[in-house]
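quick one before i forget lol
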Amino acid sequence: MSQKHITKTTRVIPWIILFICLLPSICANILYRHNLVNNHESKQNGNLISPVVSADPLKLTPLELKLKTGKQNKMQWVAVYVKPKECNEHCEQRIHELKNLKIALGREYHKLTLNTTSPQQLNNLNLLAEQIYLIDPNNFIMMQYQKEHNTSNILKDIKHLLRYSNG
């Protein structure tokens, strides 16, 4: 090989490396500016309640015994099942699913409290019976799950919220 050919390739190689490094940024910028990627889909499975509603007027009935464990958490999320006037087989199954949902949280089980309430307690809150509502640590009702929702989807949402909250 001649000296001229070696010099030419040594000049081109840094430009090739620079181009390879900048190519992903250039492509991402083009995709972003021309809205070719749709990242605006929501990740939650339930229905966000907007604006959030204060849960202060609710009278909640715990679904579980309060056990004194080593992990006490002030920042707890609350799952509330609004029972129908008469709790039938479907209602009992839903309550059982909620209890299993808490067990499925594993080591983060202490960050979620399970409660029930009746439709008579819902006065002016516009909440529906046979629904599951999620209350954040600031005591706001922020998400609703209809009776058709699968508990595995509710579990995904709760795990996601627990991961990104300060609890």
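fyi The radius of gyration is 26 Å.
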